[in-house]
Amino acid sequence: MTTAYQEESFLGSGDLQIAIYDPSTGTLGGERDVGNAQNFVINPPSIEKKELIGMRRANYAQTIKSVITKSEQEIKFTLTDINRKNLALAMFGTDADNDQTEDDNVGSAESIVAHLDAWTPLTHRNLDTQTAHKPVVKNSAGDATYDEGDDHDYVVDYETGRIMALSTGDIGDGATLKVEYYWAATTGFKVTANDVNKFECFIRMIGMDQANERDCEVIVYKAQIEPSGDMSWLTEDFATLEFTGKILAMAAGTWAVLFHTDAAATPIA
């Protein structure tokens, strides 16, 4: 009796999870959902072999022994979620909170150096725009107060916390200024590039074979990943983060794929 043919093509979707090995202890951190991935590809192995060629009359110029001496395999994936953790991966960097609490420096003025018709940054951003709280800018001796405005001595970028001394005003180029100001609270994060020299990761793709309505998982036990695409900060289309990685050998193996045919589980809320 002939077994009926069962078509089993594959059309995949999935959620990509990454956990990072601690570089100092080798311990594995928790798996983090990296968001929408446009692709997740495992390339065919790159193989190097040693081959023994026959020299006898019966096997001259034929391969009589072949041994694989090196086998490497790479992955690549592209992310569209530009969050702090993904940026840290793409920048070989570290991420940290970058919050600012509401406060002022009245009575303890900040010193800056003026550059005519160019911006000089202050220590804080998101400056208070209330009239009573606007910056007070004085000379280094503190006995002369300058006026704000396009037709006066300086202008202020309240969002980023910068002051521009105007060449049409009374502030000299290179002059030291004393600035008192109020700033509002902000919340955010900062990613510092090139703080680390490698990322070794565990990667899991929790997938769905859409063609056959069956669950699957692709597990890469360890891969050293690195950014492979440009960081485009001015773009007409959605930005992406591109990565490549070399799969590393572990006691558990290199990588595996699991197909699940059991009853569907309750979805994660």
In short:
With 269 residues, this protein is mainly β. It has one helix at residues 84-90, and strands spanning 12-20, 32-33, 37-42, 46-53, 63-72, 74-79, 94-97, 103-104, 110-113, 119-121, 136-139, 154-157, 162-165, 176-180, 182-183, 189-192, 199-209, 214-227, 241-247, 255-260. Strands 1, 2, 3, 6, 17, 18, 19 and 20 form an 8-stranded antiparallel β-sheet that branches.
What structural keywords apply?
269 residues; mainly beta; 1 helix; 20 strands
Structure description:
By secondary structure, the chain is mainly β. The protein has two domains: 154 residues; 85 residues, no CATH class. It contains one helix and 20 strands. Strands 1, 2, 3, 6, 17, 18, 19 and 20 form an eight-stranded antiparallel sheet that branches. Strands 9-14-11 form a three-stranded antiparallel sheet, with no helix packed on it. A hairpin with a 4-residue loop joins strand 17 and strand 18.
